[in-house]
Structure formats: structure tokens, C-alpha cells
Design brief:
about 525 residues; alpha/beta; six-stranded mixed beta sheet; five-stranded antiparallel beta sheet
Amino acid sequence: MVGKEDGKGWFNSHNCWKILIIDRDNFTHIMAREMVKDIKFQNKSFRILSAYSSAEALEILSQNKGVALIIVDPFTDDDSHGLKIIKDIREVMGNSVTRIVIITNIKSNKLKKETMLNYDINGYEQKTSVLSEKFLTIVIPAIKSYRDIIHINNNKKAMEQIASSSTNLIEVHSIKGFMKSVFCHISTIINLCTEDDECNINGISAIKSLDEKDFLVTAGFGKYKDCTDNCISKVLLGKDFDIFQKAYIKKDQIILKDRYVAYYGSSSGIEGIVFIETKGEINHIDIKLLDVFHKNISAAFESLCLNREIEETQREVLYTLGEVTEARSEETGNHVKRVSMYSKILAEKYGLSKRDTRLITMAAPIHDVGKVAIPDSILMKPGRLSSEEFETIKTHTTIGYNLLKRSNREVLKSAAIIAHEHHERYDGKGYPRGLKGKEIHIFGRIVSIADVFDALGSQRVYKKGWATEDILNYFHQERGKHFDPDLVDILFDNLDEFIEIKEKYSDKNPKVIRQVSDNNNER
């Protein structure tokens, strides 16, 4: 019979030791089954897979990754039959793990010596003695050797995965994304999912913020895939919820026979939980490796939460600074929020990296920081500016740049670029340097559109707000002149998102007048 298995490897719910017998003599197969039928080793029974030819043996091996031992009579057809299949198994299939024992009725010390020296085998025995009294003496040591090799390989693989995962986790910036990555990396290590075609694991990752009473599921897998945004108390039931509570009280990981739960805390008050249903018992890797990885994740989680706290503080400071600047000209703080969010949309759709998108989103609110040095008499003048006054207004770009350029912080470096270049024009007729096209930094080109789009629709001391129709007509006219044409196209393609932000963060009692302002001077 040809043995086939539904599972995909020794580590995936494996409940038996598989032994492949390769012999044309059916008596060998019958005796092998008889000798192991009531035997268990480490609570696993033995399963005999039978092949009567080399082709049949290779087919079985291709369908069963978890064959622990091959017992082969290589001399049933001719002198090269079985020896060739050993080469095929070791070199063509690349299988160096499965133990191979030759059994034969040929009594030749020379042949035994040559075979042992020239072929990667693990034993050479007389068939009659193996099938009478020595079968288990051969099988059990070979199974132990296979088990130990698998354990070593799994630990090596887990160590490689831990090293890779630790690096990858550091690169994740959002806490939700981090916890999802943690789940995937841990499940890969525990279940060694990379041996499967895909990793179909049941489990969740969840986060609890300082002001929340319960953990919220941020990612669900397997049977939990539709549980995102639900309270963990409604997702994990019975004993699973009890295990979660134990891990939460213990503030550590809990490793059970078929469950893995890990808790991650931070000094900022944000907490994380990973819950995984394992594929069988976690006995194929050293638990100490999981401890090492758990400590790495805990440190990375603390660092991420701390960085998030710092980033949120930076964001609030920049928003506040932007609001103070706008307040001097009686403009609302919501303007800087809207400009920031418009810039984020444009950056994402343009294809900027997550890092650059985050930088422009944080830096955009202080694009007009240089206005702190502009006299109130000019900033708050209700009428048209004189030529001299407009020249004074134009200096806010250089002033803002000089205020920020000395910083070594990426956010402030980005803000310096934006402050300097957000009044440049795509056709080269802008200020302060008259840059043209792609000479203008992408941050400046993006914030230029975000700023003008919002400013035109907002009422100021020197003008009334434009209607949306007039704003869109203006962008049509200035496509490729004032503004980067590609970014204008992105604006029109995603107009609904812009309008949604405009409405969500609108100024109180906005007055939108359906007319074009007669004040042509930009401020």
C-alpha cells in the first residue's frame, strides 16, 4: 500500500512515527507491521508505509515530509537499485534528516564496508536478524536520532526566525501593526508554519489603551478573523478567557499544551496580548528560545509605546505652535489640522514611504511658523496689501526656514523644507527662490496644494471663503502652473476624502460665499 498523510510535516499535529519500507518482498512489509502494531514511543504509534519499487518510494516521500526512517533492501533487483535511491533521497530530494538503514540477505563484509563508506546511510544489517529479534533495536535508536535532528533543526530555524523577527518588529511603527506582526512571527516559530503552504492559525492580537477598560482585538486569524474591534471578553470564551486572565495577572507569557498567550506592558500604560491556538504540543523547540523572543518583543513593545508617546507629544507641540501662528492672523487652529491631513492623503497617494508620509504629516502644521516675525499690522490687514507689505509677508518663508534648519531632528528638518518651499510655484514664478518643477522638494509641492486648498475655502480678515466649485476651477487653471500636475490629479481623484476632512474639522459657523475673492496677493 502507498501511505499518504493529510498533514504537512512532522511538526503539524503529527501523532505517529512514519517508517518507509522499500522491498519487493511483501513478507518484509508484513513482518514490519506485525512488530510495531502494539508499540508506542513517546505516546506515538508507528505507521508503516510500503513501497515495492524506487519510483513508488520517491512518490511516497514527495507526499510525506515526516518520514522518520527508511528501511530498504537495495539488492532485490540488481546491485545499484537501492543504492541509487539513497543518492536520490539525499542529493536530489535534499533529505538529510530521515534515517536510512539497509537490510540485506547478502553476506559480504566488503560490500558492507563499501556501502557504509560511500553512501549516506545510518545502518547496515542482516535482513533475517532484523525481521526476527533486532527490529526494535534498529528502529528505536533511529527514531530517537531523527527526533533529535528535528529538534536541533527546529531550534536553529526558530533562532533564525527570532533574529529576523526582532529586526522586522523594530521597523513597525504603529502599535496595531506591531501586535499583528508579533502574532505572525510567534505563530511561525511555534507552529513552524513556513513548512506549510499557508499559515492557518486560530488566534488574536489585542491592545488596551490607558483610558480603556477592556482589550480590543486588533487582528484576528482563523476562526477569529471576523472579531476585529470586539472586546476580548466577547471573543475568548470559557477556558481560553481564563488563560488570558492568568497571563494578564501574571504579566508574562503562558505556554500550555495547545495554547500560547503572551502579555506585553509598557510604562505609558498601553498593553498588548497575543493568544494562539497551537498545532499540537509545543515540544519541537526549546522553551528558552520562546523566553528570549518574548523578552525581545517586550523590550520592543516598550520602546514603540515610548516612541509613540514622544511622537504624539511632538505632534501636539507642532499643532500648538501652528495654531499659535495662525491665531495671530485670526485664523483657526483647525486650518493646520486640515493641512496636515490633506498632506497625508497626497503623500500616500503619491507613493511616498510610510516614513516620509509620517514626517510630512507631522511637519506640515508649522508651514507658516515664520509669520511670528511678521508685524500684526500686515498679518491682520483686512484689505489688499501694498507691494512693500507683500514683500514683507514673503519673508516668512525664509524666516521659518532659518528658525528650523539648525535642528538635527528629522521632523524639524522636514518642517524647515516645507516652511521654505511651500510658496514656490511649479512654473518657477513662486518665492522665495523661484524654484521650478521637481527642483521644489516633494514636501513643498504637497503642502502648497494642501495649504491653498484649505486657505481658499476659509474666511480670512482679508478675504471671504471661496465656494468649492471656484476652488476646483482654480486648481484646474493652475495645474502645471502653480501646482504639480500629478498632485492636482491626485487631489481630484480623491476629492471625497478632502471634503470629508474639511467637514469633520470645519471652523465654527463657517461662511462659504459663492464668489471669487478679489485679493490676488497670497499670504
